[in-house]
Amino acid sequence: MTRTPTFEELFRDCQRTAVHLEMRDAYMKSDPAFIDWKAGVVLDPAERWADWHAIVMEAASRGVEVRRARIVSTPVSEYIRFEHDVTDDIAAGESVRWLSRRNATSLVLPGNDFWLFDSSLVLVNHFDGEGENML
């Protein structure tokens, strides 16, 4: 039986590109960082997401291009405002782009968010109706 690689292993084994597409207006509303942000707590992204930044920095140091595209509704949701406010991924080496849902209308997009590694391996993200991770 083949073992499924972990998310970290997918990044470690990636050689050229790691591309993430996000299309939901809200994710993980139970996330302590989102709850703190809503309460007015000033978040330090470098501290709060140090593990993620380490993964991105390690991949980028090997020449892997890490990109993320976010398809967002307008006006943006509270959660998307949170993501914009705390996005510090660029400093770690990730390129983050935002596209309004209206401007994405003519694009053929999949039904789920996903990561695409080296244009050959897809990790599909599954969320419930409230944006909570189902896996």
Structure described in brief:
InterPro entries: DUF6879. The chain has 135 residues and is of the alpha/beta class.
Descriptive key words:
single chain; alpha/beta; 5-stranded mixed β-sheet; DUF6879 domain-containing protein; DUF6879
The major β-sheet equals: 5 strands, mixed
DSSP strand content: 15-25%
Overall, the morphology is globular
What strand order characterises the main sheet?
Answer: 3-2-1-4-5
Radius of gyration: 15 Å
Terminal residue distance? 20 Å
Structural class by sheet pairing and helices: alpha/beta
H/E series: HEHHHEHHEEE
What ranges have pLDDT less than 50 throughout 5 or more consecutive residues? none
Note the total helix count. Answer: 6
- For the residues shown, what is the average pLDDT? 91
What is the count of structural domains?
1
Number of strands: 5
Percent range for helical residues?
25-40%
Domain DUF6879: 6-132
InterPro entries: DUF6879
Organism: Streptomyces fulvorobeus
Protein name: DUF6879 domain-containing protein
